[in-house]
Amino acid sequence: MMTGFEQYTRKTRRTIFLEEMEQVVPWRELCALVAPHYPKPGNGRRPVGVERMLRIYFLQQWFNLSDPAVEEALYDSAGMRQFVGIDLGCEPVPDETTVCKFRHLLEERSPAFRGASRACEAYRKEIRACLREVNLLSSAPTKERAIGAESGVVGSDAAIGGG
Prior knowledge:
By secondary structure, this protein is mainly α. It contains nine helices and no strands.
């Protein structure tokens, strides 16, 4: 459990991916597409912000999460909460029903958004392919390891062809 006072941390691949998506997804334009169809404050509960709900929707698409699973993941992952902009000290995560209603709103009433969503889905697949490639490269044997394996010498002596 993270408390915010951890001495040792590192960025996960998920956090790095979300930071990239923060930069490349045209949030303002997507919000403009959805806003005319989104409920306005008035009677009943105050709606969650459009951009926040869009970010949750994209988390679902990128990480293949159901409505209940994205709610749980937001409580579980500090990186996801940061991406969405949720501070659990001030507010709860939107519940699965709110997420479900928003998803249905996008699927039913915002045809222009479907095209944008498909484009982002294609970009997600491209990003995942790049991440897989990076993972394969980082786990591939390096020249140093290959030389060491051939000569039977491992470590810094392998780099200089020692033996």
